[in-house]
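Teaching soon. Invent one.


***
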Amino acid sequence: MPHSPATATPIKARLISEAPSRSLVVGLAGLAGIVNAAGFHAIGHFSSHLSGTVAVLSEELAGADWTLALVAVWVIVCFIAGAATTAIMMTSQRERHLRGRYARCLIVEALLLVGIAAVDQFIAPGSHGILSMRVLLLWGGLSFLMGFQNAIVTQISHARIRTTHVTGMITDIGVALGQRLAHWRHPDWHLPSGFARSPVMMHVMTVSAFIGGGIAGVFGYRGLGPIFLLLVAAVLLAVGIYDLARRRG
């Protein structure tokens, strides 16, 4: 039975409204890959790998190495603070009925990236290794940035997709493929209720964007250093300002 205009219009409007979010998710996944790879070349640590950071925290606590344990806590707290900042911004803007909420977050993220590039450029490496001011500021700033942008995508996708949680996305891809193989071999088996809505392609696109961004981050930072981060921030700022102006218009 064909849909009536009254039924089709809201569905069409919902699909149209989801398209920019899909593009934004993939774009932010690419950005996460860029920043993660560039950050590793800058300080030798991945800012998005919170599972590893928590594992380090457990190991250092067990070994009573309080210094490294505190560094791990610092990184985790910065990530949480970044996510909390996004939530505060989004909630405040929603309550004030402001348009372009995600665009404003992109602008803030670009400014944060400029600050990180400035630290990378002007604070020289210290002699204290992981405890040097440069490493602590860069690692903490990158972790804050990852938490900030991860929370953007979490809210866009209603907690179904996260740009830096590659382990979870690859797990979801494996589960979905397993469901499809089981259904192919046994068509009469009952499928989970979320089978048709499983965002497999979205996960594949997000993981691919993260990988592509990581490759770009490696070559970009090797060639340009902190200037590369400024170029990425400029692109992000331009996208945010353009989207904000478009929505206001």
Q: What stands out?
A: The mean pLDDT is 79. The chain is about 80% helix and 0% strand.
